[in-house]
């Protein structure tokens, strides 16, 4: 949200100020009476308010003097850090500051940044709060800064929370304004773009390398490739990251165990699944501020389920990357028609309902004889599709039984096309050692390191070493070669509840090593 608001201001080419605010000893100075009054204004009952006041006021403290606890006393204000309840109470206190800033914006004392595009009026964003981390957007005007200083004084008087002006930063958005004069109004420091907010870059190009140097969460394609290489080397190198032959393709390994893989997540695919959560939230969270900002800037598609696509240089790359996944996301969802105001007939997949009104079609002209059949076909399709008055249209997720989006189900949908016939239950047995299971998995894919395969990799080993390599369980496995190729002879008899049990079921006599393909050789 902060990046979108800042981007809009820069594109409008209007100078402005970005204020990064800090609260001095935030939890320690909260006035209890003020906090209880805020809770009362928010609609909490007297019984609940009294309980919260009891939680705040009954704690006692000891001071260590020369290593000995002494001086038992009670506090008269503040919230204890580390208590799981008090961060939420602190948010109630900061809500008062948010309301004061909103009143200042509505009264015209501060302007905020206009977020919008393509000729629309836009949405005014004056501040963003996350706990005590606060951003304030205003014009580069000394009068507005003076109003803000008064607002901070009023907030301190009623809540006990003081704005730490020595740590506060005033950052110029745009050019041509002397910052020294403006910063002196508040007595704060002067900052510059790009900066950071909540640990993320703010005001920098989305693809700029320098701003992501300290961030490990931002995975580029080449970073994903490098991390996957580390995973592959770890898997095939026995945990030592050695450069050993990779016997099975990474695509197969990332498939689910029931589909012949190892269930390791593909990082690039997992990223797409995580971004899908924001598309689901956009379609369902109509009152969220972040959705209002995105909607105001990019405009909405018909129905309001997603924003329109961004133009070349319009907007910030974060939402562009999320928006690019809409078409694939849409293919895994369906619409439930309520009053029909958000679902376009003929363009969306409607879901049949059993209750509702009836269709009364009105044509702009009389039908020709050859059109009667087509109209009858249309009516037959419309008959089960009904309108439920008073109910809203909704988006449902196809991949879950409860029809609610989950990252897990979306990730699974990406690998659904990979469905070989694989004896997963035969291989992955809980009573068999995992090393034996893994050996059986390799055998099922015909990827054992036989003599001809070792030669193909340019490795020359004595016969005994090869036997040890093929035989991690200590059972009798034999190698024989003929004109047709190399074979691994397995155990014929079935030994129940032993490591050889899995191998006997997998080998079933002989496991042939054919050409390199992606089809299991055991069924």
From TrEMBL:
<feature type="domain" description="Reverse transcriptase">
    <location>
        <begin position="1"/>
        <end position="202"/>
    </location>
</feature>
<dbReference type="Pfam" id="PF13966">
    <property type="entry name" value="zf-RVT"/>
</dbReference>
<dbReference type="InterPro" id="IPR043502">
    <property type="entry name" value="DNA/RNA_pol_sf"/>
</dbReference>
<protein>
    <submittedName>
        <fullName>Kinesin-like protein KIN-7C, mitochondrial</fullName>
    </submittedName>
</protein>
<dbReference type="InterPro" id="IPR000477">
    <property type="entry name" value="RT_dom"/>
</dbReference>
<dbReference type="Pfam" id="PF00078">
    <property type="entry name" value="RVT_1"/>
</dbReference>
<dbReference type="InterPro" id="IPR026960">
    <property type="entry name" value="RVT-Znf"/>
</dbReference>
<dbReference type="InterPro" id="IPR036961">
    <property type="entry name" value="Kinesin_motor_dom_sf"/>
</dbReference>
